[in-house]
Design a protein that fits this description.
Elements (H helix, E strand, L loop, with lengths): L3 H14 L15 E5 L2 E9 L5 E10 L6 H13 L4 E5 L2 E9 L5 H26 L19
Antiparallel strand pairs: 1-2, 2-3, 3-5, 4-5
Length: 152
């Protein structure tokens, strides 16, 4: 049986040491860590797989409020074909990209790499999907580096 609290502590340390979070990494109410990259938001989750082994999942919501369509599924299949170790899927109006990592062999370098990959794909693909299907929205609309943007 996996020690989820030990895995979560390791994940928190890697997120902090890797500069993926500002300050201290704090889990949300589900025990997941939220990380922002550009217009995308992704999570790093510690848990247990069906065989009781430790699991770390890195997953991002590319778009929300997305209707299921043939065009969407074709684009999802292209991501699944083109990216190594990534799975993309539609679930309850959300377009999600995810990567699962075995906790017992996980290194800090591998976790930082998985975070970078999910963050990059989520941030790069959101506008492409929005344009393709004409629907959906990101967590953070607009360019965070836009001179007219104001952080409140």
């Amino acid at each position: 049986m996996a020690n989820v609290e030990m895995i979560r502590a390791f994940v928190a340390r890697v997120l902090e040491d890797g500069g993926l979070v500002d300050g201290r990494a704090e889990p949300d109410s589900d025990g997941d860590f939220q990380v922002r990259q550009g217009s995308a938001l992704y999570w790093v989750s510690s848990g247990q797989a069906g065989d009781d082994s430790g699991l770390v999942q890195v997953f991002g919501v590319v778009l929300e409020d997305v209707p299921l369509s043939r065009k969407l599924l074709t684009a999802v299949n292209e991501i699944n074909r083109d990216y190594l170790w990534i799975r993309c899927f539609w679930h309850e109006g959300r377009l999600v990209v995810a990567r699962d990592l075995a906790a017992d062999t996980l290194t800090a370098e591998a976790l930082v790499g998985a975070c970078a990959q999910i963050g990059r794909i989520s941030d790069e693909q959101d506008d492409k999907f929005k344009e393709l299907i004409g629907a959906g929205h990101t967590f953070f609309e607009g360019d965070p580096d836009d001179e007219d943007s104001v952080e409140v």
